[in-house]
Amino acid sequence: MKARVQRLKPLLLFYSQNEEKLSRMSNLCERFGFSFKKITPEETNQTVGFLAGFNGFLKNDEKSEIILENECVIFSSIDREALDRFLSEMRNNDLRVTLKAMVTPHNQKWKICDLISELIKEHNAMTGNR
User: Fold this and answer.
1) Measured CA distances, 78 to 8, 63, 82, 117 (Å)
2) Which residues, including other chains, have CB under 8 Å from residue 54's CB and lie 6 or more apart?
3) Is residue 22's pLDDT more than 80?
4) CA distance 97 to 74
5) How far is CA 115 from CA 18, 27, 38, 106, 112, in A?
6) How far is it, in rounded angstroms, from Cα 16 to Cα 73?
7) Interstrand relation of 72-76 and 99-102 (parallel, antiparallel or unpaired)
C-alpha cells in the first residue's frame, strides 16, 4: 500500500505589524497563486505545522503575550523555481524582509516565536551583529 502524501497549495506565512506591507505581500501572493496567511502576535505560540495547515498539528490554546518586532516570511510547499521568482519580485517591489524560512520536517514542530528567535540568532551570526 502506498502512503498518501498531503499536497498543499503554496503558502506564505507572514508575521508583520506593518499593515501596508501585509497588503502588498498579500497582493504579490495572489499574483503568484500562493495562499497567504498573516500571523498575528497571538498566534506566535502556534507551531509552524499548524499554521501551515499540516495534518497532525493541533492548535495550542496558550496565547502569546509577546509582540515580536522582527518581520518574518515563512514559505511552505513552494518549489525552488517559484521561490526564486517570488524573491526576485519581492526585491523588485521593494518588499524587504530580513528573516525568511522554508517549512522543513525539522522546523514544522517549532513554535513561530521560537523559529523567529532562531532566525534572529542566525542573522546576527551571519552579519556580525551579536
Assistant:
1) 9, 29, 6, 23
2) 6, 8, 108
3) yes
4) 11
5) 20, 25, 16, 11, 5
6) 9
7) parallel
Q: Cell numbers of 130, please?
A: 551579536
What digits encode the pLDDT tens for the residues 57-116? 999 988 776 778 899 999 999 999 999 999 999 999 999 999 999 999 999 999 999 999
What pLDDT, on a 0 to 100 scale, did the predictor assign at position 130?
A: 57
For 34, counting Cβ atoms within 10 Å of its Cβ (0-12 exposed, 13-18 middle, 19+ buried), the class is: buried
Fill in the amino acid letter for 11.
L
Residue 48, class by beta-carbon neighbours within 10 Å (0-12 exposed, 13-18 middle, 19+ buried)? buried
Contact assessment for residue 13 and residue 76, using Cβ atoms and an 8 Å cutoff: yes
Question: Is it the case that residue 32 has pLDDT exceeding 50?
Answer: yes
